[in-house]
Amino acid sequence: MDITRSVQDLYERFPFPPDPVTQTPPPGWNWRWSWSFAHSFCLGRRPRHEDIRILDAGCGTGVGTEYLAYQNPRATVTAIDLSAASLAVARQRCEKFSNVELAQMTLLDVGQLEGGFDFINCVGVLHHLEDPVAGLRALADKLAPGGLMHLFVYGELGRWEIRLMQEAIRLLRAESGSLENGLRIGRELFNTLPESNRLVQAERERWVLENRDDACFVDMYVQVQEICYTIPTLFELIDHSGLTFMGFSNPNFWSTERLLGRAPWLVEQADSLDMRTRLRLIELLDPSVSHYEFFLGRPPLAMTQWTDTRLLDALAHRSPYLKPWPAQQLFDHEYEVVNLSETEVAFLDGCNGRRSVGALLADHPLPEGLADVRKMLRHFMLQLDLDLQAPAEAH
Ligand SMILES: C[S@@+](CC[C@H](N)C(=O)[O-])C[C@H]1O[C@@H](n2cnc3c(N)ncnc32)[C@H](O)[C@@H]1O
């Protein structure tokens, strides 16, 4: 069987992810699948249009597709996958939305779909292709100018134990062994190896909860095709796409401060390195990186820099995920608790997309002024738009 057929066969028999289908909206908010958040994160300001076209490439059972449809109600979402069984579940999950279309096809053939897409999501897929470069190039060709792509691929360093177990199962399963046989062998290995075993410990510490489900266990350990990356090979892949790297969508992990904050001179030295060398340094110092999640963009990509003058003129929109609203204690976009003062609540309450930051501050003076506004921006509590009526800032 060729690689694509083997991968298809795996996901026909074990559709992924195995999350139950519900009639209620998806839980919480995932900003990476919101066009206005992705745009604000990558380019500093809200997008001009929300009636965009989204592609979910390799949608599986549609867990991500559901967020894309729910969080971008004015967009149309096309979701494709190789596996008919996965698509059948995705169809059930997304039937409550009128803006989703599903199709069984390989992402290598996306060129056959009409037109371009403004936002492409491809999570957990490219690393299962025989030739991820060809897959990424096919997707890149469908990304509209000014469009953004969100990708997730596996990291080699943090999957070291997983890859050893995959190989061990392969040896015991032999070529002709079924996936079910591989599943049985894998489960038995984890039951048999000593508690102190490094592979067992990694499983217990990081993965055991999700791997209770057979589909997750097979996806992780009985996998038939997986190419993992390090920072150097990841950027080789990205360079082949011809797109621009816009940043990791888990930026906290990639902060030198997180690792070296107790030695400011080392932070300074690390931050003076060029971006790729700095990222490599971070993964060498914290090799727990099991995946890379990031945005790419197709030029033109104008980044808005919010100098103080420009920030005062910006139109402010309160983020739609702040619920229930109004409240002084909230979860931010990464589900961290944030406590707001009464004035901050009043300020955010006024962020209706029609008033400027300066006007809002005049009505609701915050103790640290723009510094407090920047803090709210870091917590994704508001989004900014250029006020095209405001006098242009002198350069
Ligand atoms: C690990 S699942 C990820 C599903 C989903 N993106 C998610 O994150 O929940 C990988 C999915 O990619 C699909 N897939 C693998 N190769 C593909 C290809 N060449 N074209 C389209 N889908 C593919 C598989 O069928 C499977 O449903």
Record the SSE blueprint.
Elements lengths: L2 H11 L21 H9 L9 E5 L5 H9 L4 E6 L2 H11 L5 E5 L12 E7 L8 H10 L1 E12 L5 H14 L5 H14 L5 H10 L6 H8 L9 H11 L2 E5 L7 H5 L3 H8 L3 H11 L5 E7 L10 H6 L1 E4 L10 E3 L5 E3 L2 H8 L2 E5 H7 L6 H9 L3 E4 L10
Parallel strand pairs: 1-2, 1-4, 2-3, 4-5
Antiparallel strand pairs: 5-7, 6-7, 8-11, 8-12, 9-10
The chain binds S-adenosylmethionine.
CATH level-4 homologous superfamily of the largest domain: Vaccinia Virus protein VP39
The ligands found in this model are:
S-adenosylmethionine
Please, how many helices? 17
Distance between the termini: 61 Å
Adjacency order of strands in the biggest sheet: 3-2-1-4-5-7-6
* Name of the CATH architecture of the largest domain: 3-Layer(aba) Sandwich
How much is the average pLDDT? 96
Strand-residue fraction? Answer: 15-25%
Sheet/helix structural class: alpha/beta
CATH fold topology of the largest domain? Rossmann fold
Provide the helix percentage: 40-55%
Characterization of the model:
- Strands 3-2-1-4-5-7-6 form a seven-stranded mixed beta sheet, sandwiched between helices. A three-stranded antiparallel beta sheet has the order 11-8-12. A two-stranded antiparallel sheet has the order 9-10.
- It has helices spanning 3-13, 35-43, 63-71, 84-94, 132-141, 160-173, 179-192, 198-207, 214-221, 231-241, 256-260, 264-271, 275-285, 308-313, 342-349, 357-363, 370-378, and strands spanning 53-57, 76-81, 100-104, 117-123, 143-154, 244-248, 291-297, 315-318, 329-331, 337-339, 352-356, 382-385.
- Helix 5 crosses helix 10 (231-241), helix 6 crosses helix 7 (179-192) and helix 6 (160-173) crosses helix 8 (198-207).
- It starts with a helix and ends in a 10-residue tail after the last strand.
- A hairpin with a 5-residue loop joins strand 9 (329-331) and strand 10 (337-339).
- It is built from 17 helices and twelve strands.
- It binds S-adenosylmethionine.
- S-adenosylmethionine is lined by residues 4, 7, 11, 16-17, 58-60, 63-64, 80-83, 86, 106-108, 123-125, 128-129, 219.
- Residues 4, 7, 11, 16-17, 58-60, 63-64, 80-83, 86, 106-108, 123-125, 128-129, 219 line the site of S-adenosylmethionine.
